[in-house]
Amino acid sequence: MNKRWLLLIPLVVFFVLLGFFLVGLDRDPRELPSTLIGKPAPAFTLPDLNAPEKMVSAQDFHGQVWLLNVWASWCVSCRAEHAVLVEFAKTNEVTIVGLNYKDKPTDAKTWLRQYGNPYAASPMDSDGRVGIDYGVYGAPETFLIDKNGVIQYKQIGPISEEALSETLIPKIRELKQR
Amino acid sequence: MIPEIGQFALILATLLMIVQGTLPLVGASKGISAWMALSRRTAQGAFFFMALAMGCLIYSFIVNDFSVLNVATNSNTKLPLAYRIAASWGSHEGSIMIWVFMLGLWSCAVSIFSKHLPEEMVARVLGVMGLVGTGLLLFLLLTSNPFDRIFPVPIEGRDLNPLLQDPGMVLHPPMLYMGYVGFSVAFAFAVAALLGGRLDATWARWSRPWTTLAWCFLTLGILIGSWWAYYELGWGGWWFWDPVENASLMPWLVGTALMHSLAVTEKRGTFKVWTVLLAICTFSLSLLGTFIVRSGVLTSVHAFATDPRRGMFILALLALVIGGSLVLFAFRAPRVGASGKFKLVSRESALLANNLLLTVACGTVLLGTLYPLFLDALKLGKISVGPPYFEAVFVPLMVPTIFLMGVGAVARWKEATLPDLWTRLRWALVVTVIVSVAIPFILGRTAPTSVALLALGFGMALWVATSAVVGFLDRIKHVGGSFSEKLARQPRSFWGMFVAHLGIAVFIVGVTVVKGFEAERDVKMTPGDTVSVGGYSFRFVGIEDHPGPNYQASRGTFELSKDDKVMRNLYPEKRKYFSFGMPMTEAAIDSGVFGDRYVSLGEPLNDGKQSWSVRVYHKPFVTWIWGGCILMTLGGLLALSDRRYRVNARREAGAVSWTSVKLEKA
Amino acid sequence: MSAGQEMTQETTVASSGGLKPRHKRFLWIIFGLVFIAAIVALILNAFGSNITYFYSPTDVTQDKVPHGRAFRIGGMVEGGSLVRDADGLTVHFKVTDTAQVVPVVYTGILPDLFAENKGVVAQGKLDEHGVFQATQVLAKHDENYVAPEVAAAMSAAQKEHVMETLKQ
Fold this sequence. Notes:
The complex is a heterotrimer.
Chain A: H1 9-26, E1 45-47, E2 55-57, E3 66-71, H2 76-90, E4 95-101, H3 105-115, E5 124-125, H4 129-133, E6 141-145, E7 151-156, H5 161-177
Parallel strand pairs in A: 3-4, 4-5
Antiparallel strand pairs in A: 1-2, 3-6, 6-7
Chain B: H1 2-30, H2 33-62, H3 69-74, H4 81-87, H5 92-112, H6 119-143, H7 167-196, H8 201-232, H9 243-268, H10 272-295, H11 308-332, H12 347-377, E1 383-385, H13 387-410, H14 418-442, H15 448-477, H16 483-489, H17 492-517, E2 519-525, E3 530-533, E4 536-547, E5 551-562, E6 565-570, E7 573-577, E8 583-586, E9 588-592, E10 595-604, E11 612-620, H18 622-640, H19 643-665
Antiparallel strand pairs in B: 2-11, 3-4, 4-5, 5-6, 5-7, 7-8, 9-10, 10-11
Chain C: H1 21-50, E1 51-55, H2 57-61, E2 71-77, E3 83-84, E4 90-96, E5 101-107, E6 119-126, E7 132-139, H3 149-153, H4 156-167
Parallel strand pairs in C: 1-2, 5-7
Antiparallel strand pairs in C: 2-4, 2-6, 3-4, 4-5, 6-7
């Protein structure tokens, strides 16, 4: 009697497992169901960091594709992301708005002086109220908002060069086409 | 400079590993002895460079070289020296680094202690280890370089995660990884045997001590991890069925099966195919454990690193190593040859049944751990599988396992008869049943479920202990001399089994009593208040600030007393680490042979009276859980020190080369 | 070694007693099936009663959640929503996914990482008033993901260090 097929069972079981892992890797276990994607970006009107007498609001960017980047000077991961954003801003691909989250204006200004300022505007969300509207859990987080003011994508954690070139830029270009 | 040396050493180690993983294997299949001879030198060379790289990393941490990204993110000028050293393996990069370092260590050890093995076998074993090592070194260099620089150089580092700033965490990862990686030796022997087409008793004898040693490390590693979770997480639990804990339990279960299966293969020449499969599975599960923790595919309190690119790399590595070896297994295992015969009632079948049960238990743990992933991958919703699932499945499987453990230790090889087993085990059975039924009532329990659980727990523990004693008495009956001479004549391997099995009994007692009698209270306490639990009183004396090297603590003082007699003061802390800002609970534990008194601070209630929420526990016999694990480890070490490994090793050298010649011709 | 080598049959268990081989094989198959059935029953039973589903506050408000059965909700603890009862152990807070909010009650000691405006997972049941009665609260934590509270806790000295670094 030939029982050799029995010996293939472990292999088959393993490949089934492997398949699940492959799918599982694509999924982010940190991700909490976000209900904001596909919904209009919450409105805000906040003073600008560099010109506090001027108010910045979400409405200002209506009609264009823009990024809302949540950052703060206390945020270690933002530092890594910042260099990427500064480079990206030079390409003028898209308007980047920096929501300065729960920060002190002096610290934030020092940060921008030292690291460069990629932001078209930096609304100051000192008490984090707007952050709550946007469901911000921490910094950095970045929202991609389309011409109609609808959130199309949300990046949790720092934007790496890869995330920028492989995910964000293609999405931005696609949204600009629409 | 030093980090560059480390980086360079790592690259050299990789190159040597590539040589170690290729030429000796080719040499072994083509019979080129010069290529085969390379295996030992390259293994030792690779280890030298890996040790150098590890040394450079540790040095960078000791001097706090913040120009190294890994140091900058995991160390801090205020971090004490011991934790700076531990931080070397606290991060993702560091933990992979120590993983490959240990692989180097094990293969170097194999190259030194395998003088008596045929050249071809050594070449294959080291070759397989070289291939595994190459994969992980490439992973390290390409996706997780521990020596990456950062510019501009920060003046201060981010600090080590406070959860890891603990003596238990200094030891836990190295021990665990020694165990995980140690199973690569058994794996390499199994794959080498499949490649060479030679699976016989000598193969089992060679890989046995390595397997036992790896198992000892793993046991110790799990023990330390459990102990750490017990006092550091402040929940007083010792096992959470957390995916990462499960990841270490699975190789342990299958590794335990492997250890016993190897014993049968060596002594009786049976179970060969099964043993090879277990060897492959044990190491595969160790790799899987690394994958689960490091890929962040499952969340848990431990998953500190999440990066899909790394996950892809490890996944590819898993596919190659595990998939490759299973393919080899499927095609080569049929050639393994006939097994020795044995009857239904025999020590072999008891061991085989237990092997199966341990493997099934591992399978259920794997299923429970990955089930949320399966459902999510199939978009059937997000779920979590809690400890009740694992308890509901694991315990029923362990009951027959424990029963057969007692039988297997007493039954004869090849053929045993039921009447004979009955004669020998009846006293053990009678004692077990009477005592385990009596204990719950003596301890004052009358509720049916509570009585049943206690009786079951004590029954299992007593059964293991009494049957071990029966087996012991059986053995010394046939040996001449006085009682002490009889004891002295038993081989260390027997003592090893005896002690390890007693360890299981001690462990079960610990688990049973903690489950049945632990008492817990969450209370609000104002200085001067007293709370009693399990017959002990905790009086909250007060709270004061207490500065630490890199944290600020609120330290509570609790006066522990029993029957109005003050025993001692306990000082639980709530720490706030400067760099992370998150609070950390440091429980204070009064530990004793018969249990722990445990107090941890919740949070200040800001009512102006210095009130705090406080959690107090009485954990009777909890120390037995870890005591049992220590006994198991000791048992493994005793078995390792058996003189036959040294004597046989020498004697075998001649015999083995003859067998290999015979098999070459076959 | 060549592939045409003689194959040897693996015999694990020899015949026991006076049973004919065919009967013996039959017995083994029966035994194996019973064993497998027992394991499967065990697992299904354990899964059936011990799996907890995970829902968002939106699911809760849209009534997509099971009634009378424990489940988990996840979201962020709404800022300023944490209220403690006089007993010091019962806490009330609100979990939000930014679209909807669910009130939660929990009695006991909260985990170290629990804080307002931070991620949280609570396990429990929804009562008839729409309040989530939590039996367990887990705080989420991720090393690479910094929350604002980190800043507040950073000592002034360290902050200066960082600033100096930036100036370099």
